[in-house]
Q: What sequence folds into this?
């Protein structure tokens, strides 16, 4: 108190200021001091709330002094995430079901739209699951622009590749989400603010490969339309120069340099190789020469030759060369494979690896319909017609040397979905469908091919109606069960991730009866152990209330 009075008297004597002004000055100085103290204390209190016991430590993704983070964009790449989060350790590739990767909000850092995840039933977004020290949580929040309102954190539940359960993780969604689905837009109709930069997309592709996500998803990333912008500093820092994207335009530019030479070479090669095939006599060149002669090549050759001549006359028309070769040669090969009876000449179809799959692919590409073997829920007409309205039942079919099994967990069905597993001496009954080609992508999407859930295969199925083999498209789980549990015998010890739901099993039983599958097989289906869970919506939609299980 004495020092304050002494200071006041000194100030008054020096500046001629009265006591009242001195008190006002002291009050103002005191207020400034209090505010300053509060401001200095604020960061530490915020830091405490972030990492403290009453902050994010209560979130399910926090584990002691670490937390789990799901990176689906540039943070799939280790070099990128370590710039601001050096403690990040990769756990492995993970799938976020029922979300899609999309792009919005143009970033000046990347020169284009950045990634987000949008709830989308039936889709899936792959990414990298990281374990990060809790002290880095404010850093990753700042990187994602949480304080600016660009992204918002959210707890999501991801599934590590090969694991049966789900894991909570922190992820970031754009506050302003895209309104339309990027994958439903054609390439030319994607607006500029929805296109990522080339550099950003290269970062995603490199991160996905580095994280070992499924190849089908990497191909999906490569095919996303970008705006062509390159951020040189980031490209060099993250070593993205060798990451390739799909670009027909770039391929055409490279070919165009050698256009004239290519056209002339096309004519020389075609005349020296294909013309002898046309004029060859039966037996002189073996069966391939003969079948090239016998099955319409003579009519295709003038068209092929005119296309080659046109590409020479219009020297800059590179696409003419590509189309000419693709059309003429593919039709020639199709004629050879589909119409020639090569077995009679000693060339067995199944003596070559994957020939059945090739034959099925060629038939699908040539025809406007394809055959599909449904052994699970798609035995039931009302189920398959939800996403594949053109499906027409041919009849019941039997697939030899495979067994029916169940694995993983489906959110749609609340239990393990069906798969077929190669097993010598076993067999699987199902329904053979004929479906329009326009529904092929719908069927692939239903089976989760794009997210690596199921894998399409081609199998020979014996039709119970015609007693002949039909090559059909079928799907098996990418994560196949390793042991056989559902054979005849005790079913009490079957683990939960191998048990279908009660609703799913009822669909199989109803579909099998509807298809006309033998009663003995239906009796076996009724006895499969299920987890007791029911899906009321599907029960009502598919009218399963009268279906009885054992």
A:
């Amino acid at each position: 108190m004495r020092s304050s009075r002494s200071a006041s008297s000194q100030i008054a004597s020096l500046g001629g200021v009265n006591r009242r002004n001195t008190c006002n000055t002291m009050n103002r100085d005191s207020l400034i001091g209090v505010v300053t103290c509060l401001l200095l204390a604020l960061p530490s209190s915020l830091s405490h709330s972030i990492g403290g016991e009453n902050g994010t430590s209560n979130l399910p993704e926090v584990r002691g002094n670490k937390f789990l983070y799901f990176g689906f964009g540039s943070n799939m790449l280790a070099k990128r995430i370590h710039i601001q989060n050096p403690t990040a350790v990769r756990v492995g590739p993970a799938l976020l079901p029922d979300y899609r990767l999309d792009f919005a909000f143009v970033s000046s850092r990347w020169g284009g739209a950045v990634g987000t995840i949008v709830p989308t039933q039936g889709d899936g977004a792959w990414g990298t699951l990281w374990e990060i020290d809790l002290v880095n949580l404010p850093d990753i929040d700042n990187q994602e622009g949480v304080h600016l309102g660009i992204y918002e954190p959210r707890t999501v539940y991801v599934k590590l590749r090969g694991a049966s359960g789900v894991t909570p993780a922190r992820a970031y969604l754009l506050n302003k989400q895209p309104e339309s689905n990027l994958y439903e837009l054609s390439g030319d109709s994607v607006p500029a603010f929805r296109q990522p930069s080339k550099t950003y997309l290269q970062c995603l592709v490199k991160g996905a490969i580095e994280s070992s996500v499924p190849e089908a998803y990497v191909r999906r990333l490569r095919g996303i339309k970008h705006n062509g912008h390159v951020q040189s500093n980031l490209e060099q820092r993250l070593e993205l120069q060798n990451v390739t994207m799909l670009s027909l335009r770039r391929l055409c530019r490279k070919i165009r340099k050698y256009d004239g030479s290519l056209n002339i070479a096309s004519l020389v090669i075609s005349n020296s190789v294909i013309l002898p095939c046309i004029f060859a006599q039966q037996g002189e060149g073996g069966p391939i020469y003969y079948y090239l002669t016998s099955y319409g090549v003579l009519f295709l050759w003038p068209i092929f030759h005119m296309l080659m001549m046109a590409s020479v006359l219009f020297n800059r028309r590179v696409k003419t060369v590509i189309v000419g070769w693709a059309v003429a040669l593919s039709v020639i090969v199709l004629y050879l494979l589909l119409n020639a009876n090569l077995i009679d000449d000693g060339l067995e179809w199944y003596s070559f690896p994957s020939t059945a799959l090739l034959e099925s692919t060629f038939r699908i590409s040539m025809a406007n319909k394809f055959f599909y073997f449904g052994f699970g829920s798609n035995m039931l007409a009302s189920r398959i017609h939800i996403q594949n309205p053109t499906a027409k039942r041919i009849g019941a079919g039997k697939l030899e040397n495979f067994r029916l099994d169940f694995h993983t967990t489906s959110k749609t069905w609340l239990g393990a979905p069906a798969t077929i597993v190669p097993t010598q001496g076993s067999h699987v009954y199902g329904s053979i469908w004929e479906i329009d080609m326009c529904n092929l992508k719908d069927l692939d999407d239903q089976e989760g091919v794009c997210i690596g859930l199921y894998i399409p295969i081609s199998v020979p199925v014996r039709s119970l109606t015609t007693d002949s083999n039909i090559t059909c498209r079928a799907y098996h789980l990418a994560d196949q069960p390793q042991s056989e549990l559902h054979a005849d015998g005790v079913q009490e010890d079957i683990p939960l991730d191998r048990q279908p739901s009660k609703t799913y099993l009822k669909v199989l039983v109803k579909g099998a009866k509807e298809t006309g599958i033998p009663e003995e097989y239906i009796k076996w289906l009724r006895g499969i152990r299920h987890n007791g869970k029911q899906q009321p919506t599907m029960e009502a939609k598919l009218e399963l209330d009268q279906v009885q299980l054992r």
Remarks:
- The chain has a mean pLDDT of 76.
- Residues 19-51 form the longest helix (33 residues).
- The chain has 18 helices and eleven strands.
- Residues 252-345 form one domain.
